[in-house]
């Protein structure tokens, strides 16, 4: 990894070097998961709620670690230890130093809905022309983003970095780390309202991404979002479902919108429309992010990963585009909505009824408000009680949307509907 010698790592994080003689070679990787360490890599020992990485220091040296960054060095450490006050801060500091050594194009992706799908599509589009590194899974926060940066290698030409936040100031810190050449914002929705209060607050928080960008950097914004179209900034590109090329082969208007965002980034970096189409036709749905599971008796829209009012409405829109099937929505509680949470859940019940959802099955204490607003809905107190009743619900022939906040563990509902045994 370019420039990541033990000496430079120590200087970047302000650590104190202890232990054996220091090799001059560069680190092969930097990780916080000891299982991912490769010989010649650096392990950062962090203290989590359940696991303390310091207990794995002997093991990583046995695996050939170049060095360890830690808050407490073992007396008998088998290799160099860089001792710091805060291992997580050291992770960020090391990533910030490493970012400065890299010359690839950085694309930062944020928004209330569609970040992960858009990230996946953008990486696929850019891979038609460039060697691309992108965020894995949901590594999009103040721990995940530094780890993503530390996965980039010198021969990577583009880096697609998903950036998620839930408080003011977080995006400022992330963008100061990433310094995107292109920032894509997918939407401004009703999410994390405990911190952001309303959509105007969400807009302020998300557009902090511009603080870490040069004046010549590009903003790629959803032109169908009523908040984003108010953004006034040099070098701004708006995208919409009216753009070419025609992406009718993608099921669901909201997913098409994500694809047009990816296409807009591709065009800025010289990817042709033909290459864009080829890339998007090959993109597979990410588990839990709106993919459709076709089963013998019914279809399941697996959108269980997370939920807020904006994303739930978008999922209902997509469900109701299917005119010739029975439309069932299994919806659960949405968290972090602040003082207005009861009304926001009731609004979803009303929306489901207005859009033509044939059957609403609601789960969780907050979702009682959906039931009252929808009317003739079915209700379960928790996820486990729903799963126990699934065999009696007569869902044959339906298309079933499954969506709730991550803490509701609706992946278990998808697994049960798909016939996967629960353990």
Please describe what this structure looks like.
- The protein has three domains: 6-96, Udp-n-acetylmuramoylalanyl-d-glutamate--2,6- Diaminopimelate Ligase, Chain: A, domain 1 (3-Layer(aba) Sandwich); 102-281, Mur-like, catalytic domain (UDP-N-acetylmuramoyl-L-alanine:D-glutamate ligase); 291-417, Protein-Tyrosine Phosphatase, Chain A.
- The strands form three sheets. Strands 7-8-6-9-10-11 form a six-stranded parallel sheet. Strands 12-13-17-14-15-16 form a six-stranded mixed sheet, with helices on both faces. Strands 1-5-4-3-2 form a five-stranded mixed sheet.
- It has 15 helices and 17 strands.
- The two termini are 41 Å apart.
- The chain is α/β, with parallel strands linked by helices and 423 residues long.
- Helix 12 (341-355) packs parallel to helix 13 (368-374).
- 33% of the residues lie in helices and 17% in strands.
């Amino acid at each position: 990894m370019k420039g990541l010698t033990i000496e430079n790592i120590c200087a970047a994080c302000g650590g104190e070097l202890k232990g054996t003689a220091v090799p001059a070679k560069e680190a092969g990787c930097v990780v916080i998961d000891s299982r991912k360490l490769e010989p010649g890599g650096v392990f950062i020992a962090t203290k989590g709620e359940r696991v303390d990485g310091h207990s794995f220091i002997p093991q990583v040296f046995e695996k050939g670690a170049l060095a360890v960054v830690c808050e407490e060095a073992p007396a008998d450490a088998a290799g160099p230890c860089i001792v710091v006050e805060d291992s997580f801060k050291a992770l960020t500091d090391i990533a910030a130093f490493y970012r400065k050594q890299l010359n690839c194009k950085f694309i930062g992706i944020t928004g209330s809905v569609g970040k992960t799908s858009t990230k996946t599509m953008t990486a696929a589009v850019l891979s038609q022309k460039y060697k691309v590194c992108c965020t894995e899974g949901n590594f999009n926060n103040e721990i995940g983003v530094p780890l993503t940066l530390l996965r980039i290698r010198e021969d990577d030409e583009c880096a697609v970095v998903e950036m998620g936040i839930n408080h003011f100031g977080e995006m400022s810190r992330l963008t100061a780390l990433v310094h995107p050449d292109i920032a894509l914002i997918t939407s401004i929705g009703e999410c994390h309202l405990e911190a952001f209060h309303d959509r105007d607050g969400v807009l302020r928080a998300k557009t902090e991404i511009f603080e870490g960008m040069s004046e010549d950097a590009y903003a790629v914004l959803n032109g169908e979002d009523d908040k984003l179209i108010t953004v006034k900034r040099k070098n701004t590109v708006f995208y919409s479902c009216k753009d070419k090329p025609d992406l009718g082969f993608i099921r669901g208007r909201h997913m098409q919108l994500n694809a047009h965002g990816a296409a807009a980034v591709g065009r800025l970096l010289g990817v042709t429309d033909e290459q864009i189409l080829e890339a998007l036709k090959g993109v597979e749905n990410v588990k839990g992010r709106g993919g459709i599971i076709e089963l013998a008796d019914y279809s399941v829209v697996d959108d269980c990963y997370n939920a807020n009012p904006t994303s739930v409405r978008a999922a209902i829109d997509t469900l109701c585009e299917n005119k010739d099937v029975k439309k069932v929505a299994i919806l659960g509680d949405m968290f972090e909505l602040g003082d207005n949470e009861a009304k926001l859940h009731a609004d979803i019940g009303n929306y489901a009824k207005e859009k033509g959802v044939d059957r609403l099955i609601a789960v969780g204490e907050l979702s009682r408000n959906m039931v009252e607003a929808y009317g003739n809905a079915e209700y379960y107190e928790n996820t486990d009680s729903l799963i126990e009743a699934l065999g009696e619900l007569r869902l044959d022939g339906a298309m079933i949307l499954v969506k709730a906040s991550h803490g509701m563990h609706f992946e278990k509902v998808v697994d049960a509907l798909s016939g996967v045994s629960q353990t």
